[in-house]
Amino acid sequence: MSVRPDNRLDDGPMHQVTCAACSALVQVRKSSFEQTSIQWSDDALDTCVERRAASPRPGPNGETFSGCQSLRESIRGAVEHGDLPVQDDTPTPVNPEADTEASHA
Amino acid sequence: MSVADNEVRQIESDEAPTRFARGWHCLGLERDFADGKPHRITAFGVKLVVFAGEDGKVSVLDGYCRHMGGDLTQGTVKGNEIACPFHDWRWGGDGKCKAIPYARRVPLRARTQAWQTLVQDGLLFVWNDPEGNPPPEDVTIPKISGYDDPEYTDWVWYQTTIEGANCREIVDNVVDMAHFFYVHYSFPTFFKNIFEGHVATQFMTGTGREDIIRPQTEGSTAPKSTGNSSVASYHGPSFMIDDLTYHYEDAPDVPSVLINCHYPVDANTFVLQYGVIVKKLPGLDDAAAEAMARKMGDFIKIGFEQDVEIWKNKTRIDNPLLCEEDGPVYQLRRWYEQFYVDVADVAPEMTERFEFEIDTTRPNEAWRAEVEQNIADRADAAEKV
Ligand code: FES
Ligand SMILES: [Fe+2]
Questions:
Q1: pTM surpassing 0.90?
Q2: B352 and A CB contact within 8 Å
Q3: Domain with B66 in it
Q4: End of a domain among B78, B111, B128?
Q5: Residue B58 and residue B177 in one domain
Q6: Among B50, B14, B15, which Cα is nearest to B34's?
């Protein structure tokens, strides 16, 4: 078995983003303003403050950490500053400015 | 048009793996094996005998007797041992030959393969490891608290054998958002996957498709469903727990737990099992609650049957052509590969955390239009009658 690369990465690769809260380095791809993929490394995960502070959610699958809010904000910031391209940069309903900036990235 | 524009995309399909995934595999409900008879299970390419001794302990041994190859699945449980139908050698759950009624003593090394088992929440699991190691301490199946809760029903359980497809097909489902609309008649409005370590999770919120008439709503006075929210995790290669809550208009939520699990029979056959427990609604007696769980299970069954139809006829594909609105199929397969290599060869990228949240805006627009069209078409057809 050998796993091939995701064909969608041909249209736009992952980009590095730094979490403003803990400096964790992750790889991110924005397909649209609402669609994000995040590739963590074990090092980045060890660095994440929210992850360390998180307690399990209720239920049998509660151990799964649902995600870091600070990183989410850092990703949003990277898009707004034009550091992180968005594949489909239709204007975001939240921040219309982000569109013009992102499209020049 | 350039040559590249004319180029046809070829489907690539590697052979299905010949080894079987390392991990806990659920064989079914413990109670179904507890009748004092030997049960034959074909899994991981071999025949297994599953039996409960007088002490109630369920054991799993290789199906063939080490004496002269008798079929232990046709034997008899005697005390806590399985007796071979050929010459009555007695095998214990630990794999050791305990007695040979006609012999002065048991020969040296009279030991067969015993599979490590786990009974939890009414389910029987076996540990498979091609390298022969016991399960690491952190590789466990979480407890399902609803099972011990008298407020919940017992398992309603289903089983089906799928021939002509490798079990990777069902694992792919966990990331395949769009198929939930087309195959399972649900309408996902939120969809996110997280893979980390040996766990792969799917967060999904959705509603039912209004154009699909469900058995439980037709003519019933039951409260109108407003949707469901689900957190479903594969704990290892084959056992998924779906923490599933149904929401209703003017009525309390109904929590339930859905299990979706499988074990491989051979490279191109697997046994799919699924089951459900539901929290009993206040005022429902046990029989009515069980009937409700059965109804839920039967609706889920329709979806799985349609999955099976797809799997039986589709081709294995290692280079799926994905659009942006598809889930992380490649990354899921990278996660899944950790169970098919030696522990020493598990690469960081197979277990490192990966998150993928789908933007459902565009799919939802398209699906809403399709649902409305179907409802309008049905109304037209009804008028013409
Ligand atoms: S082959 Fe099993 S007892 Fe002889
Ligand atoms: Fe499915």
A1: yes
A2: yes
A3: 23-128
A4: B128
A5: no
A6: B50
Residue B288 to residues B153, B285, B293, B316, B335, Cα–Cα distance (Å): 10, 5, 9, 42, 41
Residue B118 CB-density burial (10 A; 0-12 exposed, 13-18 middle, 19+ buried)? middle
Spatial CA neighbour of B239 closest among B200, B197, B183, B279: B200
Question: Does B264 lie in the same domain as B360?
Answer: yes
CATH number of the domain where residue B310 is located: 3.90.380.10
B296 belongs to a structural domain = yes
Q: Hey, are the CB atoms on A7 and B361 less than 8 Å from each other?
A: no
B91 and B208 co-located in one domain: no
Mutating to test ligand 1, I would choose from B61, B82, B86, B90 the residue with most ligand atoms within 8 A of its C-beta, which is B86
One domain, residues B276 and B362: yes
Each domain of chain A, given as residue ranges in start order, spans 15-90
- Number of domains chain B contains: 2
B186 and B327 share one domain: yes
The answer as to whether B15 is a domain residue is: no
- Check whether residue B174 and residue B85 sit in a common domain: no
Could you read off the pLDDT tens digit of each residue along chain B, which spans 385 residues?
Answer: 455 678 999 999 999 999 999 999 999 999 999 999 999 999 999 999 999 999 999 999 999 999 999 999 999 999 999 999 999 999 999 999 999 999 999 999 999 999 999 999 999 999 999 999 999 999 999 999 999 999 999 999 999 999 999 999 999 999 999 999 999 999 999 999 999 999 999 999 999 888 986 655 445 567 788 899 999 999 999 999 999 999 998 888 999 999 999 999 999 999 999 999 999 988 888 899 999 899 989 989 998 999 999 999 999 999 999 999 999 999 999 999 999 999 999 999 999 999 999 999 999 999 999 999 999 999 998 888 6
* Gap from CA of B317 to ligand 2 centroid (Å): 16
Sign of CA dihedral B287, B290, B294, B295: positive
Residue owning tokens 């990228």: B349
The two three-digit tokens of residue A53, written as one number: 């502070």
